[in-house]
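Narrative of accomplishments. A recurring question from our advisory board has been how the design workflow behaves on a single, concrete structure rather than in aggregate. To address it, we present the structure tokens for one chain from the evaluation set, followed by the sequence designed for it. No filtering or post-editing was applied between the two.
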């Protein structure tokens, strides 16, 4: 009995450590176990952000996703998203990793899924957004010194094409409509782009359904039981 209690405490401590260090947790008991991945704050890339910033570190997420794919104990992935965006390369790398998993995946947009958060939201087999959730769509932006030559603009366009291509191939929105939303000039006061709230994201074909955590769990368990629906 003591050994069992000690094992339970050890498992709980490991779960607490996962949440504290990585924002990740494995849920469920018995045959159906689900890995929870939180994508929050700003997606950190190759440079470290200030310690007082909420970040999702891709060097933590990528190995965890690889371990999930290799695990025989975990059957599915639930991604909770509330991000302002961040590093384009790192965000797209995480999105590609999620999209390539063989196990069922479901995403839920909570507060917001802005900028590079859009590919992350659509990278799963099925996606939800809460009624008050937002998605901000805008062209790729760069910080720092930019050399004003033709090659720079061609490079920007290649990055944009990669992001747009991923979004349209993992959702129901058309390339033409995505471009129009991205280049909208009348909505954001100091920028170009569009903000979609809840049902608008579903109507535009970016997100599959309006829903919350209960809906996300139900859908993921449904996909685990019947993988043919993926």
């Amino acid at each position: 009995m003591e050994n069992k209690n000690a094992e339970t405490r050890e498992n709980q401590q490991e779960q607490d450590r996962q949440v504290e260090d990585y924002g990740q947790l494995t849920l469920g008991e018995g045959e159906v176990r689900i890995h929870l991945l939180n994508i929050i704050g700003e997606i950190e890339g190759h440079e470290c952000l200030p310690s007082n910033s909420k970040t999702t570190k891709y060097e933590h997420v990528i190995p965890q996703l690889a371990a999930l794919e290799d695990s025989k104990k975990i059957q599915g992935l639930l991604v909770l998203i509330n991000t302002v965006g961040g590093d384009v390369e790192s965000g797209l790398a995480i999105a590609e990793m999620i999209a390539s998993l063989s196990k069922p995946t479901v995403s839920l947009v909570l507060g917001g899924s802005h900028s590079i958060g859009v590919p992350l939201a659509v990278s799963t087999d099925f996606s939800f957004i809460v009624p008050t959730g937002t998605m901000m769509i805008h062209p790729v932006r760069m910080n720092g010194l930019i050399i004003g030559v033709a090659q720079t603009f061609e490079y920007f366009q290649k990055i944009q094409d990669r992001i747009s291509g991923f979004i349209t191939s993992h959702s129901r929105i058309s390339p033409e409509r995505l471009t129009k939303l991205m280049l909208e000039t009348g909505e954001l006061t100091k920028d170009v782009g569009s903000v979609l709230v809840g049902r608008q994201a579903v109507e535009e074909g970016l997100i599959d359904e309006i829903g919350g955590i209960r809906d996300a769990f139900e859908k993921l368990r449904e996909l685990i039981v019947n993988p043919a629906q993926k």
